[in-house]
Batch of 2 targets.
Target 1
Amino acid sequence: MSERLPILRIGENLLVSIQIDLDDQTVLNLQDDLAEQVVKHSARGVIIDITAAEIVDSFVGRMLATIASISRLLDAETVVVGMRPAVAITLVELGLSLGGVRTALNLERGLAILAEHAAARAAQA
Amino acid sequence: MTVPGRDTTADTVRTQPIVTSDDVVRARQLARTLAVECGLSLVEQTKLVTAASELARNTLVYGGGGRMDGEVVSRTAGRGVRLNFTDHGPGIPDTDLALRDGWSSGTGMGLGLSGARRLVDDFVLRTEVGEGTAVTVVKWTH
Ligand SMILES: Nc1ncnc2c1ncn2[C@@H]1O[C@H](COP(=O)(O)OP(=O)(O)OP(=O)(O)O)[C@@H](O)[C@H]1O
Ligand SMILES: [Mg+2]
């Protein structure tokens, strides 16, 4: 059954954590829901936590890249955090380098990247 | 549970029908179970399960559904997991093209088949237009 993952709001950022093995429809739902929530909350950052994800295949990989592109168009930055080493090794061999996707080792560093972005933005304004 | 004293034994075959996208999730889970039973390393498990995910999705999306049969196999040099994906869909007219990185007849990234081939040790694709497609992969312990 397809489901909708909970999206948490922390200040100006949205956080979604991939905890279960997702079917493809749930992955697509997440893409749509995140775009909607970015606009609804004028979010500045999106963090996708894949610490619990045992694999990232081409479908999920494409979703991560698409979310990054969509949120960029909506003036928000995406950071994927918590990728397991075995997942990273497998993704490269699969042929997915996820070049356009910002990554961080963990949630803390991901939040730090978003905070830097926010600071740079404030300095520009 | 290898039969002692026998070489190239096959364990019992376990079958997962692939009819819905939930079945793709179940196929991944069965692949994982077999990989753990077989004693594949974490990286090897991850590669096998990722390949299984790609192939199961192709079976569903392009083959119109089918099945995955999986088993633990052994040879003198060690054990492995063999997964067999079959469907009775339209088949693949040009396998060289289908196996090329980045080629998709649909909206995919065209990485499923070529990527799955890189992620496993043995990869055999048999297909006939109008008859269907069968992909067999094996990941061996190293
Ligand atoms: N079981 C199948 N039956 C019929 N055609 C298939 C089957 N599997 C793959 N193909 C064909 O081979 C092409 C390449 O498959 P591949 O998995 O590499 O890419 P994709 O599924 O299009 O994209 P991706 O997997 O990267 O999302 C498909 O677009 C499809 O035309
Ligand atoms: Mg595919």
Note: Chain A touches chain B at residues 1-2, 21-25, 54-59, 61-62, 84-87, 89-90, 93-96 (CB under 8 Å).
Target 2
Amino acid sequence: MTLQPAPKIKLAHVRKEFGGTPAAIVAVESLSLDIRPGEFLAIVGPSGCGKTTVLNMLAGLEPVTSGTMTMDGKAISGPGAERGVMFQDYALFPWKTVAGNIGFGLEHGPAGHGLSRAERDARVARVIDLVGLKGSETKYPHQLSGGMRQRVALARLVANEPEILLMDEPLAALDAQTRIILQDELLRIWGQDKPTSERRTVVYITHSIDEAVFLADRVVVLSSHPGRLKRIVDVDLARPRNDETRKSRSFSELSQTIWELIREEAYRATMQ
Amino acid sequence: MMASFGGALAGGSAAPRRWPAWAIYLRTMGLFCLLWYVMSWLTPNKLLLPSPIDVASAMRDRIEDGELIANATVSLTRLLISVSIASLIAIPLGLAMGTSRLFEDLLEWPVELLRPIAGIAWIPLALFMFGIGNGLPIFIMVYTAFFPLLLGTAAGVRNVDRRLIAAAKTMGVPRGTLMRHVIVPAALPSIMTSARLAVAASWTAVVAAELVGAPSGLGYAIEYYRSMLDTPSVMTFIIVIGVLGFLCDTALRSLSAALMPWALSEKKR
Ligand SMILES: Nc1ncnc2c1ncn2[C@@H]1O[C@H](COP(=O)(O)OP(=O)(O)O)[C@@H](O)[C@H]1O
Ligand SMILES: [Mg+2]
């Protein structure tokens, strides 16, 4: 038994209801989970199972109905720049260009403190390059395709370099090739070549099981209606992971295991 | 197959060309003037409906004696001053109303009670308070422009996409910055629309206010030439009011486009 470091984020018996009694919708029920510092945690589950709700609570945008949610031992009571969010529907500022959106946190938030104008611009340019948006810097969000908007949202999160990255289906709108390239980039940004102590903490929602297995240290499988913890699957694939990982036997075995776990859930959710 | 498809397309583009916008406009105006001319010719009393030709010559006279430019300048200046004053009060109040429950509760009732009262209803009272001069029309116009600006701004702020505010908050943006760099730009389309409404309403009110309570301006000129039984000049000033109102709105639309390039191209799509 190895000694685990103190959890970065701790969820204890978290419950979330929407709407008033008696017609309240229970989105999340008795969810207990430790998120370790420097870990890449994926959350999978059928749509409507409460993944986005969990992320919003982690971000401090939604209060928990009951239970506790703490970060470094302190209750999460609101949003903070140390927890960056990439929203499922992007939430880009329509009046800002691609570069303006990506640089927003650097210009107006603590992420840019201590950086000169030139340093901020350089970081924005680097991140634009990273997500393949070179040449679209001066476009407005409505002039972009869905996939490009998603990359702007990803770039905006990455540019802020938050300690914890909360991502809601960040690559879902991309074509297969771009998705694979950005998966590799994500692992690099997260710090897969570095020791665990220097890695950021990532909570990554996806509906792609392969993606969850390829990226994550652990995969949390949620069941639906209400969202509960079904199983946590440890992904003990070696790092750094690359194309070899995708072809390996253990990769497909793990994917298969998770698929079987959520198959009945997905079926149940679809039939509702 | 392809050939017939291409042929159909080519046939479409070879069809008679649509008139350009300005030609359509001129054609409509020409028809209107013709109708007007016939009507005036049928009207026995030229005082009731002067012909377009009489009006055109009156317009030339009023340009030459400087009356037209002088009165238009006075009215436009009043409009500019009034809308500026109204904006300076109504937009900050609207922002406060849209973001703070307290302000909304405080302002809701007075606004709901005052809003249905047309600006011109205050003219008799304003005559006592301000007498004849600049005060009265400016008071009436500020009053008229105030409500669309206040309510449009408040509604714009209330309808700001919550996710954008959430996104800014997760980037640690402080409150003041949130107002300036998220809420105001997100509400700007609504604020600009209400500014157009305010200018249009205010421009309507200036004429009414000047008819009674000012020694100058387009409204005053109408009243003056009416008392001189000079209907062609009265018509001249009515036309000028219409044209200037239209030009003000066009100017505001260009301002919107310049302020919000992102919203403009959104519409063009
Ligand atoms: N703001 C809200 N008000 C009411 N119900 C909500 C709200 N947000 C989410 N829900 C409900 O909570 C459940 C979980 O939603 P969500 O977290 O978005 O699921 P997922 O992201 O896994 O698809 C759904 O049944 C959804 O209808
Ligand atoms: Mg979701």
Note: The CA atoms of residues 85 and 130 of chain A lie 18 Å apart.
